[in-house]
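FW: tagging you since you asked about this chain on Friday. Here's the raw sequence from the shared folder, copied in full. Didn't touch anything.
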Amino acid sequence: MIGPAVTGFATGFSLILAIGAQNAFVLRQGLARQHVFWLCLLCATSDAILITAGVLGFSAIVEAAPLLPQIMAWGGAAFLFVYGAMRLWAAYLGHYDLHIAGTSAGLWATLGTAAAFTWLNPHVYLDTLGLIGAISTQYDMNSARYAFGIGAVISSFVFFFGLGYGARLLAPIMQSARAWRILDVIIGLVMWALAVKLLTP
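HL: got it, structure written out here
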């Protein structure tokens, strides 16, 4: 069972490794050192739910609702555009005293934003329900497929907790408003680029 588990881990890790909206948000919160544990737990658990659904064969749900991907793409793009605008506006204002002091939005607001990044992103369904689900079909519905799914789930926990707590290594260079402004500009532009990508056929 080690082989399928390693394959699942490598597959899951490679799919979430690219910097996206969710990862950028986790990185930002990790730098601020606010609500990191609960944020990482939410992101990893959400992935675990979707990966489990994909491995168990529920990817047919997406095929049964052909309009669902388009609807989610528009909703996700709208959310990314608004959040990107918020980050660019924050960079313009340059009010980062609270961030430097280690203060950010409340727990529920942070988790709500993370949930939106996760569940409004059509690509997360493609990666988990689609790709991981499809790759898992090379194994029979037995312990090998379950091991593959467990490996993929573990990769999400390793990635998000590694990103959230690993961001603290960058904390020493994030002690100025200029550094936070640069980060917000980058995040804002990434959000807009992702929004455009979602709407591009």
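FW: Residues 18 and 24 are 10 Å apart (CA to CA).
HL: agreed, and The chain has ten helices and no strands.
FW: great, closing this out.
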